[in-house]
Design goal:
- The protein contains 19 helices and two strands.
- It is mainly alpha-helical.
- It has one domain: Up-down Bundle (Growth Hormone, Chain: A), CATH 1.20.1250.20.
- A two-stranded antiparallel ribbon has the order 1-2.
- α2 packs antiparallel against α8, α3 packs parallel to α5 and α7 runs antiparallel to α8.
């Protein structure tokens, strides 16, 4: 399906046709499918995201059992997570082409079925290599699911609720992580780790099937229809790639998100092992404590979205400043948690506080990846963000932490990597302030229509 995009050679921007539209920033003022219809589809997207991250993080709860069975090193253990995110990166761009050209909803549905089957196949693994291959396939199935959902949410929700909607959707991630780690650890302790992989894949597949027939929005139409040129898909792709490259604050938002991911992924992945190894806690207690830590995001991410929505109504750059302060505070608290000797309860409280500070600003940089791109390029921008996030964060994070742990010890690994990556996250998001208002003004104004 071809898309219409503005061209400086053919038509003026929408804001020139309609100056009052400048504040819309290509978001509808009402729910695109009516409030009930939009929230119904949104609920399925959130639920599928829960099982996305449950299947993704379940391996952290199973890791001690897998290590014991196959005598893995920490570097090999980290590789199980790194290969999953590498699979996501390799397939994210090809899948993103299908998202905007075919259907965001149907693509997300089929991907959910695929990653669920791939996760279940790990239950049949008889070697480290076979399990690693199954985890890579899970990543391939999860490629670009989040960008497809971000694009749909940004189009379907009114601007006054966008940060909150993205915050609620993002809160599905820690729910899924907690579910995967806690249930995975429980099932593994009572029935074996292979049963955990098989059982947790089933509900996600069922939700993905239910999502398939839900409504999507049409490809993008400029606010002014007059003399709008018809441009084919590849021309749209080329234009959108050029727009991304010419938007410094967008690129800096990608990098900041990647460094924030490099900070927290190794902590979450190795925390059950850390609590067991350093503090001598039973594995089931360690997995439950890690799951409890993840549940902080269920409150913190939507709360941060609500706060930033309120602040942004008064000052457009407020969420960027908010993210700078929150990232800096999180990095300081992580350094205090792992850099100084503490009893387990004190250390855990510091990690909780750091995680809350990081999560409360999560939807700020995320919304930048959508609002700084035209609607026809939102899925592409989201995909570029996810690829950067994984290539620089999720892929190297667990493996680098494992290498540092094998050389210096797990306690030092969880100090060095989060401290350095957290500092970079702060620097990148602070640098985005220089360009943000100008870049936001450059984005053409659009409206979207239900399919």
């Amino acid at each position: 399906m071809s898309q219409a995009i503005p061209s400086s050679n053919h038509q003026p921007s929408a804001s020139q046709h309609n100056p009052a539209a400048a504040h819309l920033n290509h978001a509808p003022q009402q729910y695109l499918f009516g409030k009930a219809g939009t929230l119904g589809i949104f609920s399925l997207l959130c639920l599928l995201m829960v099982f996305d991250f449950a299947d993704r993080l379940i391996i952290a709860g199973l890791l001690p059992y897998i290590k014991a069975e196959w005598s893995l090193s920490d570097a090999q253990s980290g590789l199980l997570s790194s290969l999953l995110t590498l699979g996501m990166v390799l397939f994210a761009f090809p899948v993103s082409l299908a998202i905007d050209r075919w259907s965001r909803i149907k693509t997300a549905s089929l991907m959910g079925v695929f990653w669920g089957l791939a996760s279940a196949s790990g239950a049949l693994a008889q070697s480290f290599g076979q399990l690693a291959a199954s985890r890579a396939l899970v990543g391939a199935g999860e490629a670009a699911y989040a960008p497809a959902s971000y694009a749909w949410i940004t189009a379907a929700f009114p601007r006054r609720r966008l940060q909150l909607a993205l915050g609620v959707f993002s809160a599905s991630q820690p729910i899924g992580m907690a579910l995967g780690i806690a249930l995975g650890g429980y099932i593994a302790a009572h029935y074996g780790w292979r049963h955990a992989l098989g059982l947790l894949a089933i509900p996600g597949i069922l939700v993905a099937i239910a999502l398939y027939r839900c409504r999507d929005y049409q490809n993008i139409v400029p606010l002014s229809q007059a003399n709008a040129p018809r441009i084919n898909h590849w021309q749209v792709l080329k234009e959108n790639l050029g727009n991304i490259g010419r938007t410094p604050s967008l690129l800096l938002a990608y990098l900041s998100g990647a460094m924030a991911t490099l900070q927290w992924v190794p902590i979450i992945f190795f925390l059950p092992t850390y609590l067991n190894r350093i503090h001598g806690l039973p594995l089931q207690q360690a997995t439950l404590m890690t799951s409890g830590l993840l549940m902080i995001g269920v409150v913190a991410i939507p709360l941060g979205g609500w706060i930033m929505d309120a602040l942004n109504r008064r000052y457009r750059q407020a969420k960027v400043y908010f993210s700078v302060v929150a990232f800096a505070l999180a990095s300081l608290l992580y350094w205090l948690a792992f850099g100084l000797p503490h009893a387990v309860n004190t250390q855990y409280l510091l990690i909780v506080a750091a995680s809350f500070s990081a999560a409360v600003s999560a939807s700020g940089p995320l919304s930048m990846t959508q609002e700084l791109a035209p609607p026809s390029g939102r899925a592409l921008s989201g995909t570029a963000s996810v690829m950067t996030l994984h290539l620089l964060g999720s892929v190297p994070g667990p493996f680098l932490a494992g290498l540092l742990s094998d050389r210096y010890g797990l306690d030092q690994a969880l100090l060095i990597l989060p401290a350095s990556s957290g500092l970079l996250a702060v620097l990148f998001i602070a640098s985005a302030l220089r360009y943000y208002r100008h870049d936001l003004a450059r984005v053409s104004q659009y409206q979207v229509q239900p399919a």
